[in-house]
Please model this.
Amino acid sequence: MRYVAAIDQGTTSSRCILFDRSGRIAGLAQREHDQIFPKPGWVEHDPETLWRNTEFVLGAALDEAGVRAADIAAVGVTNQRETTVVWERETGRPIHNAIVWQDTRTDRLCTELAGEHGADRYADRTGLPLSTYFSGPKVRWILDTVPGARERAEAGELCFGTVDSWVLWNLTGRHITDVTNASRTLLMDLRRLQWDSEICAEIGVPTAMLPEICSSSEVYAEITSGPLAGIPVAGILGDQQAATFGQACLSPGEAKNTYGTGNFMLLNTGTTPVFSEHGLLTTVCYRLGEQPPVYALEGSIAVTGALVQWFRDNLGIIGAAAEIEDLARTVDDNGGAYIVPAFSGLFAPRWRPDARGVIAGLTRFVTKAHLARAILESTAFQTREVMDAMRADAEANELSLESVALKVDGGMVANDLLMQFQADILDLPVVRPLVNETTALGAAYAAGLAVGYWSGTDDIRANWTADTTWTPAMPAAEREARLRDWDKAVERTYNWAD
Model:
């Protein structure tokens, strides 16, 4: 029996998961890393810690499963996207902490770059608005801030990469990325799948520091050292694209929603990029070898699971994230309180970098249990906004949105109360798959397809199995009233930050 290993380097932890041919988990290891908050709105990770933890979980997953490296057919990599690392080409040492996708320090830079053109200056080529979310402005900030960095970058002495590139560099020595991660930098032309030299020059990122762009599924190189030395790395997908692939959303009109640190809904739009008129992003969904790329519309929500962490770590109201469901179940509703977690501004579909978080509707009646319920409900409300935008874009582009049910995955989908409320607010069934680790599974599929472990995408479809389905039960009048109150709460977040 052989397996495929998936490295899942996420926002809060690094994991390695081993999968068998049926897509079932054979072994798993995980190690968390610290979140670094130097200033309000700034979020960093230590890149060397990310790598040490990744290397550790590779061996730990083998040990947990009781298998040898020789039992591994290939390795796939999936990663937190947009998070930016710059390191020395000669030594491999980072010159600055990784700047995380949630970080907002580049807000003024993005406004300057937008200028008279507006935030959509590069949207027709990249599918993205100018936003603190994406990697290009983060690279520019590092080059402007670290003494001598710009000169060294122009001389080819520095490497830039999203976290997949950083992991691949340490695994194999190659400086590469895949099309899905490259499409999140604000530096790649979506149609040509190449770095756009004009945009790079205008943002201020030397092309000499950029990785080679590869497909999402091909043999890149063998691992040079460590517990999996000699095993080929054969798949790379940004985490949300990996979850889409793992959920078998392989046909136009199929969508999934991942509930993690943030929420990310992706809609497969086929081999032609669809540009949103309703606040969504256009991104590469995946590319298998030399086949045409598949594109997606994406609705990115910055803070969902991170709000539960804030409730636990900053307020100390719960001791573990899983406790929030039991606390929320002690009340029947939110008591009139709404929490809008605009910690990093608002992402899709509103895109308001000036917004900051609010708790609205407070009265003396509201308890910590009502707040717990409002936290869970905020995730569902934000998802409804993205779904509405997705439906509007799909209709405008004559794309049939297969909205019979929404496929969901990620850590928060273990919360039955949230999933039922999500179905109620969407007025749509919500389906959780039997294997919930769809992000890692998608990376494993990409790698396994490249080496013939799976024969084709029909194997992926055949492996997908539903576990639990929640059906809507909320009266329409109540749903509309709650949505109106949510909208009022969101509007109170505007114009807070300069």
The longest strand covers residues 25-32.
